[in-house]
Each structure stands twice: as C-alpha cells, then as structure tokens.
Amino acid sequence: MGRAVTVATCALNQWALDFEGNLERIFRSIDIAKSKGARYRLGPELEICGYGCSDHYYESDTLLHSFQVLEKLLESPATQDIICDVGMPVLHRNVRYNCRVIFLNKKILLIRPKISLANAGNYRELRWFTPWSKARHVEEYFLPRIIQEVTGQETVPFGDAVLATKDTCLGAEICEELWAPNSPHIEMGLDGVEIFTNSSGSHHVLRKAHARVDLVNSATAKNGGIYILANQKGCDGDRLYYDGCAMISMNGETVAQGSQFSLDDVEVLVATLDLEDVRSYRAEISSRNLAASKVNPYPRIKVDFALSCPDDVAVPTCIPIQWRHHSPEEEISLGPACWLWDYLRRSKQAGFLLPLSGGIDSSATACIVYSMCHQVCLAVKNGNADVLADARRIVNDETYIPEDPREFCKRVFTTCYMASENSSQDTCNRAKLLAEQIGSYHINLNIDAAVKAVVGIFSVVTGRTPRFSVYGGSSRESLALQNVQARIRMVLAYLFAQLTLWTRGMPGGLLVLGSANVDESLRGYLTKYDCSSADINPIGGISKTDLKNFIQYCLENFQLTALRSIMSAPPTAELEPLVDGQVAQTDEADMGMTYAELSIYGKLRKIAKAGPYSMFCKLINMWKEICTPREVASKVKHFFRMYSVNRHKMTTLTPSYHAENYSPDDNRFDLRPFLYNTSWSWQFRCIDKQVNAL
C-alpha cells in the first residue's frame, strides 16, 4: 500500500537579502534531505529572501531576486524527485503576500499565501503583507516569464488549498497560524489532511521554547496527524535571534527534535512515520469523526507522486522522544553567544571590545563572549568547516585552528578597565582576574586626566567649578560630574576599539559591546551616550535577576572562580567619590528601588499592559504582606516618574539581543512617547483616592 512516509524539515541560518547565501543553504538542506531518503522537504518562512527584510519588502527588487532564486531551484537536478516547500514574497494582483511555493520536478504545485499575519511585539507583517482572507478559495496566478520558461506553466493555483499525493494529504500552515485560536490545521485535519507543515520565523525569548513545542504537540493530540515545523535560526540582521527548534510530531508526541542553539548554518531533521498510526489514532476519536462529517472541504491539488514506497513493510519508523529544554541560564549562555558570532562574522570585524567594570553586567557580557568562544571551538572540533573558515578570516590566519576557548578569546576579545579616582581597587582586581580566567586581551587605563581636561574647559569658560555633593556641591553638579566620567569612557571605548589591533600589528577593528541590562534601561538608570552606547548589547534584554543566576551558572560550568567575588559585591556605578577608600554609592540606593521590584514593574507595565493606576491595584494585592497601600502608591509613583523622565534615553538605546517580553526597546518592540507629562496628575490622583478609601 505504501504507508511509511519519509519527510524532512530544517532550520536555516538565512540572512536578509543575502540571496546567494540563502540559495546555497537551501540547496544544502535539499541535498541532505534527499541523501536521507526524504520525499518532502520543508524550509523556514520567507527563506529565499530572509525573514528580516522589513521595508525592503516594498521594493520590486526583493520580489525579482526571489523569483530568480526560485528559477535556480526549479531548474536544478538537485530538486528532482522531492517535493520542495520554500518561502518567499509574491505579488498577486498588485497585493503582496507572504507565501509558500511548493514544487516538484520543475512544476509549481501550489502557491499558498499566509492567512494569519504576525503583528504584535517584534512582528510587523501587516506593514508589508496582506493576509489571504478567502478561505478554501483558489485563483489562477500568472507566473513571471523567467519561471514559465522553466516550468512550461503559464498559471498555477494560488490560495487556500491542500495537496493530495498518491498516498496521503498535506496541508500548510505558516508560523503565526499555529498560534492563532482558529488554526487552519483544525479544519484541515477534519477534512482528512494527515500531514501538517509549518514554516516559521520564530525568535528566541527566554522560557518560550516549551510554548512552541506544546502547541505543535497539541495540534495533533486532539486530531491526530503528523506535524512538521521548520524555523529560521541565527541573527539575520537585527535584534532578534531565531532559535531553530525544528521538530516533527505525530499524534501528540515529538518524534524528532532539532537544536535550539547551534553554529551550524544548515540543520536538517528527517523522520520516517507510519500513516496507519495516524489513521488508527483518529479512528477511535468519535467527536473528531462526527465533526469531520460536517466539515467544508478544502480544494485538493492532485499530485502524481508518493511520499512512501510500495514495498515498505520492513522500513523502520521513528518512535516518540522526550523533548529536552534548556534552563534559562543555558539559554543566556548559548543564545546571545550564537547571536554575537553571527554578528561578528557577518559584519566582517576582527573581534569585540568590552569596557569591563568588574560588576555583574559587564562580567556577564564577558562570560557570553567566552561562551561564544567555547561554541566556536566545539563546532570546529565537530567538523564544521563554515565556522573554521569564519574563525580563520576573523583572526587573519589561514592555517589557524581554534581549539582552546581561552586562546581564541585572546585573539578576538579585548577587555578594558577604565579607572578613575572614584574606582575601588576591588573592582579593578575583579576585572583583571576575570580577564585572566577567560583569556581576553586586557587593558588597564585611567581616565582622570581626560575628566579633568573636560571639566577644566567648563571652568575656564564659566569661571565656575562643579563639585560632588560630598564636597558641598549640589545634586546637579554631582550628576554632571558623574556623566562626564561615563561619557569619556564611551569615547575611549571607541578609540581603543578602532586602534587597539593597530597597536598590536593586527588588521581590522573591534565591535564595542554594551552591558546595560533590561531593568536599568526600563528605569533609565544609565547615562545617555555613556558605555551603554555601543555597537551591540548581548544582555540588553535580560533582567538583573537572570544575570545573577547566569553568573552562578558560569561559575559552576566554566570554573570561573573570579565570579564568586563579583556576585557577592553590591552593584555600583563607582562614579561618586570613595569614602575611606571604599565604595559608598550603590545602584539600588541611587534608583530608589530594588532590581527585583524593577522586574515586577517591567512585567506589569509591558506584559500586563498596566498604567500607574492598574499597577497600583495589582501590587496592593501582590505586596499586601510587605507593604501598606500608601507605601505601594509611593513606589508606583516613583517608578512612573523615573520611567517617564528617562524614556528619551530609549530612543538611543544600543541594539540589544531580544530576550524578554518586557523589554523597553524603542525601535520596534515597545512603542511609547519619549516626552511625557511626568507629573501623571490624573493617574496619581486616582491612586490617592484609592489609598484614602483603603
């Protein structure tokens, strides 16, 4: 009969507008799928042009080059005798659609447009595409001439249809459609579709992977069937890291799991599954069978091809596996590290420079770079030729083989401790020891001369010399003096990033890394254009709480004993004068709130969509054991005052790895005004009324 079908899905590290590289990776995935016996190959969403093209989708060039890549795929012998399902933008009757183009043996079988577009958080698909709103409707699509010449087809089906092969029926979903409350797989399954496919462009968020896995498994748990998910992986040109996790599920259980974080540009999963297992699973679900008898049927595109072989009784099939999830600390260690590697190799720079203060945030950033070096050495050890070629180009040595993470770190990572008269010996020692343990090229310098020169110019012009508050100055003077130190560090960071390798007789420049965490950004506890201003920031979407846990993870897994004293030290900016040689300034005292409180405020503000009044109402219950309503009111008011006063800083925030759903990133994720009425008079009056009533 033919019952064992062999299907392939993949995770590809595509890059926006890198048509040549994207084509090469697609070909590699098809070759691997065919070599493992697959008869169907699924790729990620918009894989031909890359998912993150943004406003380039408006350009006719993007459409043209996508069809040119499709032409190469169609005419290649590599795509013969396997159904290929690729993603690209398509213009149909002057409307742009996010589509799957499914073809076999130089013939396009179906162009399936996306029905539910992702338009929340980091996604803006409605800006560039229109959802297909004609359910179970197919129209004629007139092919461009370059495609007609290859396929011999003038028109092909375009719309909401399924494929009927000789042995089964396949239906496509695209990313967001899996997350929608009325997912197409529900009615497709009732209409007899046995294999569901999903091409995704789904990015990493801490603790999110299980949600995607649960959705895939639940899709076939109620209705039976085989579910195949492909996903983009890597940094394709912006703040997001697409985290792979390609998977295949059957009847509610995972049968194949791809990696969430890896430096492999092409990862292919292949599974052989028994269609009779789907049919027997469905047979005893009477509620499903009753619903199926009333379903409105899908148009079926007949395909003269089978995913199985006639004589397949002895073919072994896959069995369910247990999905292994990473801990949040592992996710922080791996996700930003892979993102940094993609950014480094694709930007064609020679490494990173990090202002290393000896505190938790910059130390966590250093540990992520060290983790990246670990991943590079591991990938080379496992035979990844792409990573080896990139590493050789970055260090400018065609014979180099990265084997020791510390030695590789020395070549690509420069750390710099920028001392001032307000810096303690403790932080200097902690930074130096950590640099020694991870192997970075470490620089110690003192910024006092530059600070005095800048303040001296001000004094010459105005005849006034500002003083710190401990020396009798006002808070304005003290803050200005702190900001001068912070901004000079930024200027020096870029100077050393450009010329450090020059002084060492090495070519290239360094990318400057920032290290402000998500909570400090939310509160605005940073100097505009200080060391938080950098090229990229791997921890800008991670909370202080998670970073502390990550530091503990690195201490245990990388044996970085220097982190022990860093963890125990109170966070401090070290911008005010020392008292008896000891640090008197601490972050939490400066902010007027704890980092734990900040995380709660951030989640309520963004995820729970709470303004001042709603946040107060929620917190009087959450904190009823530790705070009076009046104390809660005071905390909420202080947070919103500080948040709104400092919101303008988000407009210049360094591009950061997106890891948290309460990120205040002003670029695309968290769109707010940056000029507020910071008195919040109406909102705070509502809070005061409730406090008095309580």
TrEMBL record:
GO terms for cellular component: cytosol. Gene3D superfamilies: Carbon-nitrogen hydrolase (3.60.110.10), HUPs (3.40.50.620). CDD domains: GAT_Gln-NAD-synth, NAD_synthase. The keyword Magnesium does not apply. GO terms for molecular function: ATP binding; glutaminase activity; NAD+ synthase (glutamine-hydrolyzing) activity. Pfam families: CN_hydrolase (PF00795), NAD_synthase (PF02540). Pathway: Cofactor biosynthesis; NAD(+) biosynthesis; NAD(+) from deamido-NAD(+) (L-Gln route): step 1/1. The keyword Ligase applies. One of its GO terms (biological process) is 'de novo' NAD+ biosynthetic process from L-tryptophan. Keywords: ATP-binding, Ligase, NAD, Nucleotide-binding. Its EC number is 6.3.5.1. Residues 5-275 form the CN hydrolase domain. It is an enzyme of class 6 (ligase). Homohexamer. PANTHER family: GLUTAMINE-DEPENDENT NAD(+) SYNTHETASE, NH 3 /GLUTAMINE-DEPENDENT NAD + SYNTHETASE. In the C-terminal section; belongs to the NAD synthetase family. This is Glutamine-dependent NAD(+) synthetase. The gene is Nadsyn1.
